[in-house]
Amino acid sequence: MSQIKLLSPRLANQIAAGEVVERxxxxxxxxVENSMDAGATRIDVDIEAGGVKLMRVRDNGGxxxxxxxxxxxxxxxxxxxIELEDLENVGTLGFRGEALASISSVSRLTMLSxxxxxxxxxxxxxxxxxxxxxxxxxxxxxxxxxxVRDLFFNTPARRKFLRTEKTEFGHLEExxxxxxxxxxxxxxxxxxxxxxxxxxKPCSSQLERERRVASVCGxxxxxxxxxxxxxxxxxxxxxxxxxxxxxxxxxxxxHFFVNGRVIxxxxxxHAVRQAYRDVLFHGRxxxxxxxxxxxxxxxxxxxxxxxxxxxxxxxxxVHDFLFxxxxxxxxxxxxxxxxxxxx
Length: 343
Ligand code: ADP
Ligand code: MG
Hints:
- Belongs to the DNA mismatch repair MutL/HexB family.
- With 343 residues, the chain is α+β, with helices and mostly antiparallel strands.
- It is 32% helix and 24% strand.
- The strands form three sheets. Strands 5-4-3-6-2-1-7-8 form an eight-stranded mixed sheet, with helices on one face.
- Helix 10 (266-276) packs parallel to helix 11.
- The radius of gyration is 21 Å and the shape is globular.
């Protein structure tokens, strides 16, 4: 008798969820990315009990067509790419079409949406079942709300790894902070157990952007930061880097974005570390909020399911550009009396 069987869609999704959905913070990352991809200018995130009980992300983006609602929750269904070539130039944060399918396979998920300013909306629900999603009418303004309840209710092994409410919320807040630094034109509003934690209005001026950075990274960071905006060979680097005197005992204040995407990359970290090398004491870490912009065709974002890593086609050029730009900036502030750490 045949021993090999196709996995049910539900089980396949639950297995895939292992890669994408580690904890509440990973759900929020995916949902907020979807809202940003949908062109939202306002994103409201409501959390209960560190996200384990409830996570609700509401946006005023383009919405999802009624007939697309079941598809949005299916694996490998995306509106963002059609063919392999699109991946070369992907301008959206998402493209794998698996986040909602994964999340809905390990939670009780409800999605409401509407694509019109006027008119009714619709609702789809999926309770970790196979993808027999039913769509019914439900009022909703233009945009989308995704509600995720009881994360890991059907995967006890995963649930065991959840930490305290406070810890999980801390991770989740960190995600929102990073994302708010990636899109100054979007307003972010985070509530936990009914309490407003962050209310970050959209920024249009440089002053407003600096205020947002100060509120996310702390006013002391901004007071000690140098502004940089430099370009060479099709690469642009801009943002804020702290003076060496504002170094940290941990790498907790390091935000790096590549074409608006939150990135943690070895090559980038190395370039920054090298630039600070002769102005930082051993064991101290620089603080920065930096944006690298380059032709999407020369960076591959499809390296890992969470898309935190990228691969540069010409890593050496990127490394040199980062190192040189930052080294030059720091060269202006290198008097001996600035070498002592304070933080
Ligand atoms: P991906 O983002 O990789 O396409 P997802 O599973 O995250 O995959 O989402 C599937 C699809 O559902 C998206 O391609 C998009 O068309 C739609 N979608 C998801 N969230 C939203 C949202 N907040 N607003 C509009 N469309 C959305
Ligand atoms: Mg997505």
